[in-house]
Write a structure and sequence with these properties.
Chains: A alpha/beta, B mainly alpha, C mainly alpha
CATH architecture of one domain in chain C: Orthogonal Bundle
Strand order of the largest sheet of chain C: 1-4
Number of strands of chain C: 4
Strand content of chain A: 15-25%
CATH topology of one domain in chain C: ABC transporter involved in vitamin B12 uptake, BtuC
Number of helices of chain C: 19
Shape of chain A: globular
Helix content of chain C: over 70%
Largest sheet of chain A: 6 strands, mixed
Oligomer: heterotrimer
Order of helices and strands of chain A: EEEHEEHEHHHEHEHEEHH
Number of helices of chain A: 9
Radius of gyration of chain A: 18 Å
Radius of gyration of chain C: 23 Å
Strand content of chain C: under 5%
Largest sheet of chain C: 2 strands, antiparallel
Strand order of the largest sheet of chain A: 6-7-8-3-9-10
Distance between the termini of chain A: 26 Å
């Protein structure tokens, strides 16, 4: 594997909770522009891995390097400012703000950095930011709901809004935690289409996903996590044929 | 050595009061998840139970003063003493201990009414709302008391038998210099007994087991099909009674006034925070520790080095603890750490 | 939900200014048109507006804001004593000193959130209050309170050749005496400026970030914001508002006492803010006026007035009513305050502004239309 186009490198990461090894010997490289899916049965450590990547959890040993920067020990906002954005599984939005504000806030984070004391500008007259936000909302299919309070959205729409919040920052690496969990089939398909469109823009993505339909329609490469270890890594075809994967998933899902 | 022992003793009785109030505060927070700013007011109400009882017992009547023979003179004598010349004065003398018997049912009822009528509607509300509504209630309690009892402190007397001082020094072989009021020693013992009973209750009864489990993981207990809500009222009642009794017994030490509750509330919150939010043992430990610390800080030797330290020591400790070890001395990791 | 427009804000601002400046006229029928009371409205309005910038926008409940009020008063009186009787330096001084205090207290307290933050601020307030009464007596003059004396230096005034002869000098604004009605107008103009700044802050990106922090602070840090400086600035700004209010108190009556820092005073500003409507622009001011007005009325009542009031009723009933109502008036005003606290939190968490909105809703069917539109639109998406 050539190293020059690796954006995210997870090296030898260990993490245990009260003696239980949640992650051991994790080595993972994500290349520029690819969509990398992490799959694995429940409790395999997928979410833990994602949390380590965005600084929510500190690994016991090993480190996570993004584009030459060591992410280990960095604060969440610093990691975000580097261009790593996470979309959560349970929608994390600003329920009391309207949709447009929800999307404008992350754009401002990207434009103004982690803190700016601009007391006398009008938030709503940030025309360029507003335009971008509106565009992104249209992208995810929430175009005409800009004035609605985000808390009143349905769960599926909240997830779409959160996706919009992530996309609006034009991240260099987007981490998606089960983007279609709990969505109805047609919503899932809409999300897949959306993610495919983003892929065309060359955004690097890591997706954690249960739904194999989603994984195989999006992923360039797949890492299979089981029992806190990566048991197999490769293109969808390689992974499909790997006997260890079948074993790990035995009785859980059809691969 | 004498001075140190004396300061420790001084700290312990104050610490006993802190521990008793903080125990209830942290119990309510740990099980019910409610921040009760009216808890200090409950302490104050307890103290005024004693005042009320004393007032009732000493309701006076005019009787002829036989000692004056030139003319008909009258003097005020408590009805009780006039009616029962032998038992009467003894009962009056025992007003404060008797007030405990009165305070238990009174505080229990107040606790139940408060929980059923108000607090339970606030389980799901934000902590800020809980603080505000109980703060309002505390003001009301305080003002009602002021309306009926006035703004001045009302001194209460400990029973005559124990109104003197004990020669504590000689118990420890330190000579006769360390003497200490009996009542304060009794207070300390009393606080110890109450704390021990609460712990025993939580430790050895099924009810207590459920409550402790609830403090660990409320949702889990709920999922097991145990109606924890039903038990909340009892827990709240226990906390109320603890605070009330702490108040009753404290009256001979500190003449109660209407705003004593608020003074103690802030301190008790500090105690809870230092001990660890939701940790019963922590609250008791921190209560005594801070009491002792405060009494050392008010020694003249200390004050001459750091002026004003006695005024702020407790808050200072709280600030340091919150910053360095937010879960407190004995709080569990991960509980309310941010 | 309709987004506030720049035009709408200007209209609001102009209306606010007119209402404030016209107070002496429209308050007359309520018997509240005397300068002392109107000054209080303005001063506590500033206090509450500033408090709202912290509590209303970020949701961080400070229980120690009265410290900054007290600090502002002390700073202003010291300015009168040492520099000049002109109120401008006093106000500037008050704002700066309280800002420094707010920075220090905020820097430490904001390392925690939720109830811990409330308790920390309360602990700092108690510390300051205790210190003001004890070791800091040389600065605060302890229980007597800080007052002007004939021996004060007043170096700037002395340089300008203003001599103090027999009586204590009074505060001025470049020669205009600040007592009475002019005093009210000074406070009113400061209030209007303070309101304008608060409005701009609320509508600014900074203000939006504060609201986002209140809504979901964790999300803010994952969105790339360092929330701590935002909160600290909000805390400092609201502390400066309190300092300004405190210095205006000294302007209208050059005296400062530690009781201004007591936590009951902190509680009062919390009540003003939630009573009016936390997070709204004019709510805190309405709350302040409401409370100060009723404080004025209620605390002036006594039993004789009550007896006169219930005179028409039969004697027995009269006595019962008088004894019940006397609980709430005069000295018992605080009881009414506590009761109001509870009623607002229980029944009207959004305060008076929320009440107005609810009443407004009864008369228009617009809100339902918005929801219908939302449902329709989201239906069209899927």
């Amino acid at each position: 594997m050539s190293t020059e186009n690796v954006v995210l490198h997870v090296a030898d990461v260990h993490k245990s909770f009260a003696g239980l090894h949640a992650l051991s010997d994790i080595d993972l490289s994500v290349r520029e522009g690819e969509t990398h899916a992490i799959i694995g049965p429940n409790g395999a450590g997928k979410s833990t891995l994602l949390n380590v990547c965005i600084g929510r959890l500190k690994p016991d040993s090993g480190h996570v390097v993004f584009d030459g920067e060591n992410l280990t020990g960095k604060k969440p906002h610093q990691i975000n400012q580097l261009g790593v954005v996470r979309v959560f599984q349970t929608p994390e939005i600003f329920p009391e703000l309207d949709l447009l504000e929800n999307v404008m806030v992350p754009i401002l984070a990207k434009r103004d950095g982690s803190f700016k004391l601009n007391l006398f500008k009008r938030f709503s007259s940030e025309a360029e930011v507003r335009r971008q936000a509106e565009e992104t909302l249209v992208d995810v299919g929430l175009g005409d709901l800009g004035d609605i309070e985000a808390g009143s959205l349905s769960r599926g729409d909240k997830r779409r809004l959160e996706l919009a919040m992530g996309l609006a920052q034009k991240p260099r690496l987007l981490l998606l935690d089960e983007p279609t969990a709990g969505m109805a089939r047609h919503d899932t398909n809409a999300t897949i289409d959306l993610l495919k469109r983003i892929k065309a823009r060359g955004m690097t993505k890591v997706i954690i996903e249960h739904d194999m339909h989603v994984v195989f329609s999006l992923a360039d490469r797949i890492s299979v996590l089981a029992g806190g270890r990566i048991i197999c890594q490769g293109t969808p075809e390689e992974v499909k044929g790997d006997p260890r994967v079948k074993e790990a998933y035995l009785g859980e899902e059809q691969v | 050595m004498d001075a140190i022992l004396l300061q420790i003793l001084n700290g312990l009785d104050k610490g006993g009061a802190y521990a008793l109030i903080a125990l209830g505060l942290t119990l309510v927070f740990g099980t019910l998840g409610v921040v009760n700013f009216a808890h200090g007011a409950l302490f104050m109400i307890g103290a005024f139970c004693a005042v009320t009882l004393q007032k009732l017992l000493t309701l006076s009547t005019k009787v002829k003063d036989e000692s004056i023979t030139f003319f008909d003179a009258y003097k005020e004598v408590p009805i009780l003493s006039a009616k029962f010349p032998v038992v009467g004065p003894i009962i009056v003398d025992l007003a404060v201990p008797l007030a405990i018997l009165v305070a238990i049912p009174v505080m229990w009822i107040i606790g139940l009414v408060m929980e059923r009528g108000l607090i339970r509607h606030f389980y799901k509300r934000a902590h800020a709302d809980q603080i505000l509504v109980t703060f309002g209630l505390a003001i009301i309690a305080q003002e009602v008391v002021r309306h009926y009892f006035g703004a001045n402190p009302i001194p209460q007397l400990a029973p005559a038998v124990v109104s003197g001082s004990a020669n504590v020094g000689s118990w420890f072989g330190l000579g006769d210099n360390v003497v200490y009021p009996w009542w304060r020693l009794i207070y300390l013992a009393f606080a110890g007994i109450i704390i021990a009973s609460v712990f025993a209750f939580l430790q050895f009864t099924t009810f207590g087991m459920v409550v402790r489990a609830g403090m660990q993981d409320r949702e889990m207990v709920g999922m097991l099909g145990i109606n924890i809500q039903k038990r909340f009222a009892t827990v709240f009642g226990i906390a109320t009674v603890c605070a009330g009794l702490a108040g009753v017994m404290y009256t001979p030490i500190l003449p109660p006034d209407y705003h004593m509750g608020m003074d103690f509330l802030v301190l008790s919150f500090v105690v809870v925070v230092v001990g660890g939010m939701g940790s019963l043992g922590g609250a008791v430990l921190a209560g005594f520790l801070l009491g002792i610390l405060q009494s050392f800080a008010s020694m003249n030797e200390v004050k001459s080095i750091i002026p004003g330290i006695d005024q702020i020591i407790i808050y200072l400790v709280a600030v340091v603890v919150l910053l360095v070890r937010p879960r407190g001395l004995m709080g569990r990791k991960g509980v309310m750490e941010d | 939900m309709t987004r506030p427009t720049a035009m709408g804000d200007w209209i609001l601002f102009i209306c606010f200014s007119v209402v404030v400046l016209a107070m002496p006229f429209w308050l007359a029928p309520f018997g509240a048109d005397y300068p002392d009371l109107m000054q209080k409205f303005a001063i506590f309005g500033i206090f509450a507006i500033g408090f709202n910038l912290l509590f209303g926008l970020t949701g961080y409940l400070s229980f120690g804001h009265a410290v900054f009020l007290g600090v502002g008063s002390y700073a202003a009186v010291w300015s009168f004593k040492l520099l000049t009787m002109n109120i401008v330096p006093a106000m500037i001084f008050g704002i700066i000193v309280s800002g420094v205090f707010a920075f220090l207290i905020g820097f430490i307290s904001l390392r925690r959130s939720g109830i811990y933050f409330s308790i920390l601020t309360l602990a700092f307030a108690q510390m300051s209050y205790n210190l003001a009464y004890s070791v800091l007596t040389p600065i605060t003059n302890g229980e007597t309170g800080l007052q002007l004396t004939l021996q004060d230096a007043r170096s700037l005034d002395a340089m300008a050749g203003i001599e103090v002869t027999r009586s204590l000098p009074s505060t001025t604004l470049f020669g205009i005496k600040t007592s009475g009605l002019p005093g009210f107008y000074i406070c009113a103009v400061v209030l209007i400026i303070a309101f304008f700044i608060a409005m701009r802050i609320t509508r600014s990106p900074f203000g939006t970030m504060l609201r986002a922090i209140k809504s979901n602070q964790t999300r803010m840090s994952y969105t790339g914001f360092n929330t701590r400086p935002y909160l600290l600035w909000a805390f400092v700004i609201s502390g400066m508002y309190a300092g300004l209010a405190g210095s205006l108190m000294a302007v209208t009556d050059p005296l400062a006492g530690a009781e201004r820092m007591q936590w009951t005073a902190s509680g009062e500003v919390v009540l003003m803010t939630i009573l009016g409507g936390a997070g709204t622009l004019i709510g805190p001011f309405i709350g302040a006026v409401f409370i100060k007005y009723f404080e004025n009325i209620f605390s002036s009542f006594n039993e004789q007035i009550l007896h006169r009031f219930f005179d028409a009723l039969p004697d027995g009933l009269e006595n019962v009513l008088v004894s019940v109502t006397s609980l709430f008036v005069g000295e018992g005003w605080h009881l009414t305050l506590g009761l109001m606290f509870m009623i607002v939190v229980i029944f009207l968490p959004g305060g008076i502004m929320e009440g107005v909105r609810r009443i407004g809703k009864l008369f228009s069917r617009k809100p339902e239309k918005v929801v219908a539109k939302a449902v329709e639109a989201s239906g069209a998406q899927s």
